[in-house]
Specification:
51 strands; 21% strand; globular
């Protein structure tokens, strides 16, 4: 009998789920916790990426830690956690906290403080915060912010989530202090009554009283008008670029601090009424002086239920006994046992056999029999390899329940500490903190360096399960910890069974870290060995240790370069006695820069000559080849010397050595900013009260928010599977451009569970789609990009379908491919369409200009990264050709039509349903129709329900992104800054088909003026055809690209003129009545950019002085400022799309059902439409319900896009409700005091029609591009942003310190929702301009950035540290012909996110003044050459733009690049 005989093992797992015990016999070894939860109907936990990078799948896993003797709670990525890992644990999901009717305080606060928009990410945020509170009921604001470092949100901009979460910060004064006991229970420490009565949050506080009843006063939307009229023309001269009058300035001042509206509460005693004193603080006559946003927020907070940590669900006592091994077996209680489970289907399983030993001896016994077994702890590495690389690990051993691997031992004899190999990184960080406090800072510098890199290692969910051993033995060349271990001369302790004696005897050996890494992903571990511990020395006197890391995003990101640096000097002579410089990201393994260390040996630390020798040696030793894997060769090389320079300064300061000048002079003082904790974010929102409306305009929370925070909100993949439902997976092209010689599905069809493999020949109807009919649903003869769907596999399970896709054989004949827009533009590879705007005489104006400057601009693509991937479920109705399609789409009508055409049936047979989307941003406007068509094809052929939900990588490869743009321009300008002429040729990368590229191009061409008057223009736009996915709509839809072209040009013009760019913007800003290049006048009553500019200009001037003073005193950290305006035209470019429809039912009980043509994707459209209906029908908002958008209730709908959906559908809803209101008016007049339910029933009994349809078509709209005549946009939404950043010029890392936004939204339909749209759009624009880099392989055409692991949207820690947004109040809206005089807001603020880019540019200009040979001008060198920067301004771009000596040293000679392809390419 072997040592792993099955008789000594159990085969079942036991855990608790939301308080209920669960036992599973022989669980599926490939099943993740997320899959199990969703299969059991707990769909609140979402699948966003499948690689632990987005946090949508976060749950809380609690366990009793026998070693520590206490219950620990951990937020965990359920998508990576194998189901078998939860044995003996308690799993809590969002459903276990509360319901929408009775939410947990965490759920309530996030919902009602506007922290949930699309809602797909919300359960993950809820669970991260909940876990923090279970571990620490009294967290600080910093701890709250940091608990979200593994959660991503694409909608909100994070600010409202953080605001809601911070209501839990340090609240002992509200509820008494709380202490967590070892068994997980919480003990409340009550405070005196006097202390509890300090303010809001106690029972009886005035903030808890109901606000006064609002009188319902209904105001109809402004009636449409024709023409501007003489009065408007006369007003043109009155509006000039000047500070607004005192009255207007006071009515729309920049945001005030939140504290200005949150002074101490009177407790209801001052006013003598039930109303809150704070709500009455401002005089009604001066309504504009009130910040209603703060009042609304405080009133909501006052009504929150208390958070009572003592009332949380307790950790099951049985699990404590289970973990300790003290269960009462005589009473039938289960005992925790070692596990051995064999896969039910070994041939197709990723894991064929699984072991879970409980002791080190048991582990070694397993390894003796299976020496090549894969050890698994957090599964953060193995899970990703299985997910993304389809790796198979036949034997897996789970080691996280072995106490011997989690112990700490302090070795007094060797001045070192051993850390158990399987200690989680979260606990490792905690123990490092404890040891630093115990032994002091000098002796624990190795520990401090490890802690520093752990601060930004992955997210909380990963650190809670990932282990030291996992980080070490995977031998990743970009490990965060290994360079520090290597520099510290740590030892890896390995253990195995002794081959010469009994298996129970253990053999150990130690390996120095310098000898541990043998090659890429190879170590010195032998077969059958396990890592027992790592021994890290304490530091000696005269030593200094530091760690540095640089990534694309500071938090939750893999390193580009990371390092551990150590030096020991003789305190008397300053001579270097020992040095160790270890780097990750510079070789196939973590490496020691031995020659660099030798260059300082024996030299005096602090001497300039020592520094020069060290930097030169490092540049020589760490230089990378141009085409090195991972790319960024010059940047990575520059980072090594930058880190060494930082270390030099830090070591000089720590060791008390005065550096003798040199390049490092002054850096030591600036290093404090690196070590200082990042500021906790704060924000303020401001808008005025709404006094003349009952519902519309109020800051009502998203109507589905509570359903989203509790996990009740359903998305496409949350639909329960129907009986016999099948799954679909895609076969994707592996070539960028090729003829398809043949597709062989023979092997795939022989796989168990595979039902069909569909190709182009299986499309019964039309196999072409999109507006231009130039794209096949499934390709017949030719593929055009890597990732193009070639065939569809339909199978009984998702796993069977996915496995079968790899069995489909495709034969290709390769064709030439073009990827980049520059390459395509210069080769003339473009579509036929051209868009041109010409005005004046450009040639003559250029000839007369004082300065003529030529240049180019480029902005890259951007992934939508909606948290819910594209998906659809197609359900045959069982009668003829009828089919229901449940889709995540912004365009249900197009999905309906494409499905009908592909199947060859009438559109009336297809009903497309959209409940909600987990984000869209334009990405689900057109490309989602293809996903719906695929599912429909599967359902058509199998006559069964078919589900298709794309994985994140599939979505990013197939769905298209924001169009990259490249522009060449020539501009004429006078010396005083007046622009005279612009000739621009702009090119978009459309991808392989048209899709919506013409519309995107039209908006780019028509927004290239932004907010500036250029008398003579010649602007031509073309769409390039490339071998990438067809790029598509994205929030701002070409507008931001066009505006960036001009703004980047203005910056270069300002450099040449040696003029601040803000002054150049101001000089050329449109005045009221000016005419745009597309011949549309700016109406005097609705041109508010100058006014908003002047509101922020004083703040800009004050900060300019502060920033200049900071930069004068700081050599290596620079701050920058930007003041940026935007105007965004609202309307669809295609005239026929400017229409909306609605259907409204009043039921006998007085409830109202509204159906309209718009879809809900988090932007609050349904909430706004319900508000319009309630206002028009004079009903409370609670009476109105919107169920879904469906093509059988709202036919021939326009896509929810172009920021026009509130306008179009709002007027349609209003028109329908007006009809109903007119019909019901006689009954209301007869029964003035009757409840509405009685009125409705009476009307029904009187045979009154209680259903009405509404329609709206935008008047006067329509533009002819050939004649350049007509009205292109119905109106403009406008805004101005002021951004301040701080840039680390040695690394390119930056922090956004301040952002102030003033936005003109007309008379908002919902001010709180509009604020949320502004903040979310800004964050998305900030990501586009800075961190979100889309890269392709130039060799294969494959997309390299396919998920959150290497595509970085902003995190909660990237948002401005001080973020202030106000809505322009008091503007003249009398000429707005929109619903209730409101303006569309979804897209317009996005370009303001680029203010961060332009502020960073300003900081780079400040840095370049120190560059060798730099001129004294405003950023130009002595020849007047301007700074050229492109979007995105990643840390690499920014660092290399600073042009200092280290950058010059890192440059690769051009002859070494000649004729070679880089590793990665921007397209």
């Amino acid at each position: 009998m072997t040592t792993t005989d099955s008789t000594s093992f159990g085969t079942s797992i036991l855990f608790f789920l939301n308080g209920e015990k669960v036992v599973i016999e022989s669980p599926d070894l490939d099943l993740t916790l997320l899959q199990y939860l969703r299969n059991t109907g707990l769909t609140g936990t979402k699948l966003g990426c499948g690689e632990g990078g987005c946090g949508a799948c976060t749950v809380m896993v609690s366990r009793y830690d026998v070693e520590q003797g206490k219950v620990t709670h951990a937020s965990v990525n359920a998508c990576l956690a194998p189901l078998y890992t939860v044995d003996g644990k308690h799993v809590m999901t969002v459903e276990g906290l509360g319901t929408s009717a009775n939410p947990h305080p965490v759920q309530e606060r996030i919902a009602l403080l506007h922290g949930s928009q699309c809602g797909f990410c919300t359960p993950g945020f809820v669970m991260s915060l909940y876990t923090l509170l279970r571990n620490n009921p009294n967290p600080t604001e910093r701890e709250i912010e940091e608990c979200f470092d593994g959660n991503l949100c694409r909608c909100t901009g994070y600010r409202p989530i953080l605001d809601a979460a911070k209501t839990f910060a340090d609240q002992a004064w509200k509820r008494g202090a709380a202490v967590v006991n070892s068994d997980g229970s919480v003990k409340a420490v009550s405070k005196s009554e006097q202390e509890q009565e300090k303010g809001c949050g106690i029972d009886g506080c005035c903030r808890l009283q109901k606000p006064k009843e609002t009188t319902f006063a209904v105001h109809e939307p402004t009636a449409p008008f024709k023409g501007e009229g003489e009065e408007a023309a006369a007003a043109v001269a009155a509006l000039a670029l000047a500070t607004p009058s005192a009255s207007s300035a006071s009515s729309s001042s920049p945001p005030r601090s939140a504290s200005s509206a949150s002074a101490s509460c009177c407790g209801g005693k001052a006013s003598g009424t039930a109303a809150c004193c704070k709500a009455e603080a401002a005089a009604p006559e001066d309504a504009a002086a009130e910040n209603q946003a703060e009042i609304d927020k405080q009133l909501v907070i006052a009504k929150f239920k208390r958070y009572e940590p003592t009332q949380e669900l307790i950790f099951p006592p049985f699990l404590i006994r289970y973990a300790k091994g003290t269960t009462a077996q005589t009473e039938g209680e289960a005992q925790m046992r070692p596990l051995k489970i064999v896969a039910k289907e070994p041939a197709t399983s990723w894991c064929q056999r699984f072991y879970r030993p409980l002791t080190l001896t048991g582990l070694l016994a397993v390894l003796e029999e299976h020496p090549d077994a894969k050890l698994v702890a957090g599964n953060s590495e193995v899970g990703v390899e299985i997910k993304l690389k389809r790796s198979k690990f036949e034997t897996q051993v789970y080691v996280s329940d072995i106490p011997e691997l989690q112990r700490i031992t302090e070795h007094a004899d060797s001045d070192s500490v051993s850390f158990g190999a399987n200690m989680t990184l979260a606990r490792f960080e905690h123990e490092l903190e404890r040891l630093i406090a115990k032994h002091g800072a000098q002796r624990t510098q190795n520990f401090a360096a490890l802690r520093e890199n752990l601060r930004y290692f992955a997210g909380n969910q990963i650190r809670n399960v990932a282990t030291i051993a996992g980080n070490v033995v995977t031998a990743s060349p970009i490990s965060d910890l290994n360079p520090v271990f290597l520099a510290a001369d740590a030892r890896v302790v390995l253990v195995s069974s002794s081959s010469s004696s009994a298996a129970a005897e253990k053999a150990t050996r130690e390996v120095r870290m310098s000898e541990f890494f043998l090659g890429y992903r190879r170590t010195a571990m032998r077969r059958g060995e396990a890592m027992l511990a790592i021994r890290v020395p304490l530091n000696a006197a005269g030593e200094c240790v530091r760690a540095f890391k640089q990534a694309k995003r500071k938090d939750d990101d893999i390193a580009i370069v990371t390092c551990g640096l150590r030096v020991r000097i003789n305190s008397a002579t300053r001579a270097v006695e020992e040095a160790a410089f270890a780097f990750g990201g510079m070789a196939p393994t973590t490496v020691l820069a031995t020659r660099t260390a030798q260059s300082v040996g024996g030299r005096a630390w602090g001497d300039a000559a020592t520094l020069d020798a060290m930097l030169a040696a490092c540049q020589d030793e760490m230089r990378l080849d141009y085409a090195v894997p991972g790319g960024m060769a010059e940047y990575r090389t520059a980072l090594t010397t930058s880190f060494l320079l930082k270390f030099w300064a830090a070591a000089c300061a720590a060791l008390g050595v005065a550096g003798n000048g040199g390049f490092g002079g002054g850096l030591a003082a600036e290093m404090a900013a690196d070590d200082a904790p990042r500021e906790v974010s704060k924000g303020a929102q401001e808008y005025a009260p709404v006094g003349d409306r009952a519902v519309v305009g109020k800051g009502v929370a998203h109507l589905s928010a509570l359903k989203q925070t509790t996990g009740e909100a359903r998305y496409v993949d949350d639909m329960p599977p129907l009986q016999g439902e099948l799954h679909m997976a895609l076969v994707l092209s592996e070539r960028a451009h090729a003829h398809v010689v043949g597709i062989d599905a023979t092997e795939a069809l022989q796989r168990a569970g595979v039902r069909r493999v569909l190709t182009a020949r299986d499309v019964p109807g039309e196999n072409v789609w999109n507006v231009f009919r130039d794209e096949e649903i499934l390709p017949t003869r030719e593929v055009h990009y890597v990732g193009q769907p070639l065939a569809l596999v339909v199978a009984d399970s998702l796993k069977a379908a996915q496995d079968a896709t790899r069995a489909v054989r495709v034969e290709y004949a390769e064709l030439p491919a073009v990827l980049g827009v520059r390459e395509a533009a210069r080769a003339g590879a473009w579509f036929a369409e051209e868009r041109r705007l010409q005005n004046g005489d450009v040639d003559a104006a250029l000839a007369e200009a004082d300065v003529v400057l030529a240049g180019e601009s480029y902005c890259g693509p951007q992934e939508h990264f909606y948290l819910e991937p594209m998906g659809a479920v197609a359900v045959p109705r069982g009668e003829g050709d009828e089919l229901d399609v449940f889709a995540s789409t912004q365009n249900p009508t197009e999905a309906q039509m494409v499905c009908a055409e592909a199947l060859g049936v009438a559109a009336s047979r297809i009903v497309c349903h959209v409940k909600r989307m987990g984000g869209g941003f334009g990405g689900k406007e057109s490309r989602s129709a293809l996903v719906a068509a695929f599912a429909a094809l599967g359902a058509h052929h199998t006559r069964r329900s078919v589900r298709l939900v794309l994985e994140r990588a599939e979505d990013m490869q197939t769905s298209g992104q924001r169009h990259p743009f490249f522009g060449e321009w020539r501009v004429g300008v006078m010396r005083d800054g007046r622009l005279r002429a612009l000739r621009a040729r702009i090119f978009s990368n459309g991808g392989f088909s048209h899709d919506l590229s013409v519309g995107v191009l039209e908006r780019a061409v028509s927004h290239i003026d932004n907010c500036y008057r250029i008398p003579h223009t010649d602007i031509v736009g073309r769409i390039c055809r490339t071998n990438t996915q067809s790029n598509t709509a994205f929030r701002s839809f070409g507008g931001c690209q066009g505006m960036f072209m001009l703004e980047s040009m203005l910056c270069e013009v300002a450099d040449r003129l040696r003029m601040p760019v803000e002054r150049l913007r101001e000089i050329n800003m449109y005045r009221a009545g000016d005419v745009t290049p597309f011949m549309q006048p700016l109406p005097p009553a609705d041109w508010n950019v100058p006014r908003m500019w002047q509101q922020l200009k004083p703040r800009f001037d004050a900060r300019r002085a502060e920033v200049d003073a900071f930069n004068a005193a700081s050599r290596f950290r620079k701050r920058g400022l930007a003041l940026l305006p935007t105007k965004f035209g609202i309307s669809f470019g295609a005239k026929h799309l400017n229409q909306g429809m609605a259907l409204v039912h009043v039921y006998m009980d007085g409830s109202v059902l509204v159906a309209h043509g718009g879809t809900e994707m988090g932007q609050g459209l349904h909430t706004k439409m319900a508000m319009v209906a309630a206002e028009t029908l004079q009903l409370p908002l609670e009476a109105v319900f919107i169920s879904e958008t469906a093509t059988n209730t709202a036919a021939n709908t326009s896509p929810t896009a172009a920021s026009a959906s509130s306008d179009l559908n709002g007027f349609a809803v209003h028109n329908a409700c007006r009809v109903l209101a007119d019909r019901l008016r006689p009954y209301r007049e007869r029964m003035p005091d009757a409840p509405f339910s009685r009125i409705a029933r009476t009307a029904y009994m009187d045979r009154c029609n209680l259903t009405a349809a509404g329609h709206y078509a935008t008047p006067d709209i329509g533009f002819n591009w050939q004649t350049q005549s007509g009205l292109l946009y119905f109106y403009f939404t406008q805004g101005v942003a002021l951004a301040e950043v701080e840039l680390d010029t040695l690394t390119g890392a930056h922090t956004t310190r301040h952002v102030d936004i003033v936005m003109d939204v007309g008379r908002s339909l919902n001010k709180a929702i509009d604020i949320g749209q502004i903040e979310g759009a800004f964050a998305q624009g900030q990501g586009w301009a800075t961190t979100e880099e889309f890269l392709y392989s130039p060799a294969s055409g494959r997309l390299l950035t396919q998920g959150p692991g290497n595509y970085k949207i902003p995190s909660a820690m990237d948002i401005p540290r001080d973020f202030r947004v106000s809505l322009l109040e008091g503007a003249d809206t009398s000429t707005l012909k929109t619903i209730f005089s409101s303006k569309g807001i979804g897209e317009p603020p996005l370009f303001l996110g680029a203010s961060v880019f332009f502020a960073l540019r300003d900081a780079v200009l400040a840095a370049r003044k120190h560059a060798p040979g730099a001129g004294a001008g405003a950023g130009a060198d002595e020849a007047g050459s301007p700074l050229h920067l492109e979007i995105p301004a990643t840390p690499e771009v920014l660092r290399m733009a600073c042009e200092d000596e280290l950058v010059a040293m890192a440059r690769i000679p051009s002859e070494q690049k000649e004729g070679r392809l880089p590793f990665a390419l921007r397209i």
